[in-house]
Amino acid sequence: MTLTTAALVGLALGLDRVVGEPPNAAHPVAWLGRLVGALDRPWSDDDRVQRLLGVPIALVVPLVPAVAAGGAVLAAAAVHPLAGAGVAGLVLYLSTSLRMLLALTSEVVAATADDPETARDRIRGLVGRDTEPLSPAELRSAAVESAAENLADGLVAALLPFVVLAPFSLPAAAAVAAWIKGVNTLDSMLGYPSKPLGTASARLDDLVMWLPARLSAVAIAVAAADPGALVRAREWARTPPSPNSGWPMATLACALSVRLHKPDGYDLNPDAALPTLADGERAVALVFRAALVAAVLAVALGAALEALLSTAGVVA
Fold first, then answer.
1. Distance of alpha carbon 118 from alpha carbon 120, whole angstroms
2. Distance separating alpha carbons of residues 226 and 34, to the nearest angstrom
3. What is the pLDDT of residue 3?
4. Cβ atoms within 10 A of the Cβ of 69, count?
5. Domain spans of the chain, in order of start
6. What is the pLDDT of residue 73?
7. Nearest-CA neighbor of 90 among 3, 11, 7, 206?
8. I need a labelling partner for 196 at 20 to 30 A (CA). Which of 6, 54, 145, 283 fits?
9. pLDDT at 248 over 70
10. Distance of CA 134 to CAs 25, 119, 261, Å?
11. Contacts of 214 (CB under 8 A, 6+ apart)
């Protein structure tokens, strides 16, 4: 089953590389976003009530894509095992995103050279902060930060449980990958301090992202051939308010020897200079290599777990 898992990971990454994101009209994540948007309203004037109402939203909404994904794999497998595997690979592809992230990051970095207004406009697809007062170097910093954080959110978070579960149950692997994408989507839309309704979603996302963020940091250090970057990053990894995003961001900052700075937020590797245009280009290339490293590490982890359980007689 390890070879099957590796093939499905290759299928998902290959589709992302060649096809990119499906149009919103055909993308299940966009459909989920419309559901979340319909729920994102002031159900009460009391913030405490809003926070309480956010709990069932956080618990139930991610189950919608999970049930749909698992059911689709089961239905396809009933027709033919290869069909089930193909649908599982398709679910992983739809639950992850890399090409769009890197393309948008590259576009923002390039625009900072001579068209900062375009960079400010395009970077809104990566970050939620106010971009008007940002200098070109700060815009590059924001883009690089987002690339590091979204390596964990957009790829590793769904990939890791998929490869761990795939050798044992493809429907379960697909369901969990889709569930995590649902959790990430909820957090990205509701998980702001200004939205009490999203408090539970943000906390759930913090829990789910604990391991993927740290695995992403390891992948960045390995891809940079600089394991010391991970050690150096420990000094600043807990600086951002998120318990997870600081790890890949700080590791990327240390691996590139650049400063990543969010005004009134955090300062990572502050003794270095903000990213130059060349640094931004290097960041895109490094995050791409780190994505490949993360995929290999995840498959290896899944294979090791499968071998361990087989030796213990838990699986045949």
1. 5
2. 42
3. 81
4. 29
5. 2-311
6. 98
7. 11
8. 145
9. yes
10. 33, 10, 11
11. 244, 247
CA–CA distance, 42 with 52 (Å, rounded to integer) = 12
Helical (H) or strand (E) element with 7: helix 2-18
The type of residue at 116 is P
DSSP 64-102: HHHHHHHHHHHHHHHH-HHHHHHHHHHHHHHH---HHHH
Type of residue found at 88: A
Predicted confidence band at 315 (pLDDT cuts at 50, 70, 90)? low
Q: Which tokens sit at 131?
A: 């971009």
Q: What's the Cα-to-Cα distance from 274 to each of 131, 220, 271, 296, 304, rounded to whole Å?
A: 16, 19, 10, 31, 40
Give buried/exposed letters for 38-54 (b at 16+ CB in 10 A, else e). Answer: ebbeeeeeeeeebbbbb
Provide the pLDDT confidence category of residue 311 given band limits of 50, 70 and 90: confident
Which residue shows structure tokens 């030796």? 311
Token digits of residue 14: 């290959």
Using the structure block, give the residue that is written with the tokens 């690339």. 147
